[in-house]
Structure formats: C-alpha cells, structure tokens
Amino acid sequence: DHCKTCTCENALSSSSSSSSQPLPPPLPPPVYSFHKRVLPPNLTSFSSPKGQTLFLQSLQSLHANSYFPLSEQFINQSDPAYCGITTLCMICNAMCIDPNIRWKGGWRWFGDEDFMLDLCCLEKERVKRVGVCMEEFVMLGRCHGVRIDMKRPDTFCNGSSSGGDNGTREERRNDLDQFRKDVIQMVQNPPSPMTNNHAIAANTTTTPNGGYLVVSFERASLSQTGGGHFSPIAAYHPQTDSVLVLDVARFKYSPYWVSLADLYESMKPTDESTGLSRGWFLLYPPPIDTKGIVEKIVGSGGGGYEGPVNVTEGKRSAECVPLVGTGDICPMGEIKKKYCSVNLKQKQRLRRLEEDVEEEEEI
Questions:
Q1: pLDDT at 306
Q2: Can you state the angle between helices 134-143 and 83-94, rounded to 10 degrees?
C-alpha cells in the first residue's frame, strides 16, 4: 500500500526513501516552442462534429454521468510533470472532499497542485522533475481520504474492492473485458451517498459506492508526443467502444475520444521508474456525513443521476482553519492523521513537550 518514497508509519525504512536520494536532473531546456499539438488521426476531438455526436449518444445511453461533475472541476496542469497531481486535485474537488485547510482567504478548496503537496512526504521539486508513479498516486490520494483500487493490465485481482462493492474474493483477470466493465461502472455511477430513487436529506454517515476512473498510460502508444500521463475518463460510447479522456494537459491536447482497446494497450508498456506497466485506478470518496447534502437519483423516467446539491456551506471560524503553508501539523483529516508519519512525528514531539511540562510541574 506504500510506495518507495512514502515516509508513513508502515512504509519502507527511510534509507530506501527517495527523499534521501539525490534529486534527478532538472528537465532540459526546450529546443522549440509550441502552441498546442495536433491531435493524431486515431483520436477524435471532443469538440468536433463527430466528437459531439459520440457525446450526445453516450449521454442518451447514460454512459456519461461522470462527465458533469468532472467537467465542473476540469483544470489544466500547472506544470509539465504535474499530470498525476492535477488529476487527483480535480477528483478531490469533484468528490466534494473538504481538505480542512484554507486555500486562499476563507475558502477550503483544493485550489492547485502545490496545495496538495503542502506538508507532503513527496518532494515538490522531485515531482516537478519526474512526476509521480502509480504507487505514489495511490499514496497521495489515500492521504487525502480517497479510497483507491489500482489495477494493471493482464494482472490478477480478487473480487473485493476498497470501493465497498461487497464483492466476492474470487480471482479475476484485469483484461480488456474487465477494463471495459470498470469504465462502464464508473462513468454511469459517479459518487453518490444515497441508494434510493428520490431526493433525500439524510443525517447519517454512509459509504458512497460510486466513483471515478483514472488512467495512467504511455502517450507514444496513442501516437501522441510525450511519455507517461494521467487523466480521468468521463464517458463511454458503446457503439464504437471508445472513451472520452479529459486530458489535464489542456495546453497540449484538448479532450478526445479514443478506442478502449487502444487505451488498454497504451497502459502495457513498462514504466522505467517502476519496472512495471502502467494501468488504471478506481477512485471512491471517503465515507461522508450526508447531513446537509441532497443527492438526487431519479427513476427511470428522469434520465439518471442528477448529482449532489449542497444545502450547507460548512461555515467555520477562519481562525480555527489553518491557511495552506502555515503551521507544521497536517490538518487533512482523520485518515491522514493516522496514515502519515509527517503528522505523526509532530504529534509525538508535542506529546513529549507536554510530558516535560508535567514533569517540571511535579518537581
């Protein structure tokens, strides 16, 4: 569950952590300058007439429910190597996760990638130079409360899922059919804490079953320029067996449709940083308190999932919520308090100080 750079409680020893290793060389200066890249002919631009038709048909068949919450938070990566961090930032906002820390002013929001890396055991400069691998993506997501299943093509997994699907423990192959099933499941079922078929305002804590799907693939396999890349999948078109990729490198490629089989093959090349293939992720939000949220899942006559509607604003005193970049204890929520040793070490230091004060008082 931990990558080689993780400094968390159950991670590998600090001697094997990349934070103790020299930084890789910075990216070389560019030889040429570009204003975007031409989309290869094997891909279909989302905004083209054909791309629009694919989307309309996908929407009508209820295979584009994930598009709307994702498009509301669709951002451009602020650094060429930030695709994984940007994707995760986008997912956290689409899941309405409260970071419990202020981005700017009084707003608690995953405002940018640097926000996600604040007080993180992943070095910001290292990420800027080489990005993140799949294991690091999982680690960072879990630190922020996201429940993640990671899969690689042509490997095996059991039937259980951290998404709470109560699956059996039978072994199944992560083949093309399984990838297709995961895509369909996710694009049809974005996070939803309710299970009934009408709007409800609940006052309980529940575990959402819906989620989002993110791919990590090799660009060259899709005739694109560049190396490994992360981006979320927003829709599926059954007739052409293709998916809509919301490419977070918006400066380079706009969203596009790609054959599901081609995308699956693009995850197979070996990632030199891990010696393993790339793959895909199923991301689920943490269990949430549904008080103040109205989730609308209409019946068969209403057209499908209608999305969450906030009815409270989580108002708190700004003095009680630290601003990003201030303080030395990570306030990202209970899961990170238990998971991350950066925070654990700070708590131990404070505990020792309290014990010292108590001893002085006894003397």
A1: 54
A2: 30
Buried b (16+ CB within 10 A) or exposed e, 92-105: bbbbbbbbbbbbee
CA distance 75 to 344: 32
Is 229 marked active-site? yes
DSSP assignment of 182-241: HHHHHHH----S--SSS-EE--SEE-----EEEEEEEGGGGT-SSSEEEEEEEEEETTTT
DSSP H helices in the chain: 49-60, 67-72, 83-94, 113-117, 124-130, 134-143, 176-188, 260-266, 334-339, 341-362
Token pair for 306: 């209608």
Rounded CA gap, 186 and 64, in Å?
Answer: 9
71: exposed, middle or buried (C-beta count within 10 Å: 0-12, 13-18, 19+)? Answer: middle
Q: Does position 293 have pLDDT exceeding 50, yes or no? A: no
- Tokens at 299, concatenated: 């019946």
**Per the residue annotation, which of 8, 83, 89, 340 is the catalytic one?**
83
User: Alpha-carbon distance 246 to 203, whole Å?
Assistant: 34
Catalytic one among 149, 229, 237, 340?
229
Active site includes 133?
no
The pair of structure tokens assigned to 237 is 């078109």
* Chain segment 225-240, per-residue pLDDT in tens: 999 999 999 999 999 9
- Nearest 5°: CA angle at 215, between 235 and 332? 100
pLDDT band for position 166 (cuts 50, 70, 90):
very low
* Residue 169 · residue 160 · CB < 8 Å: yes
What would the pLDDT profile of 190-249 be if each residue is shown by its tens digit? 987 443 333 333 444 445 579 999 999 999 999 999 999 999 999 999 999 999 999 999
Percent of the chain with pLDDT over 70: 69
| Active-site position among 112, 182, 247, 271 | 247
Question: How far is it, in rounded angstroms, from Cα 302 to Cα 226?
Answer: 42
CB atoms within 10 A of CB 11: 19
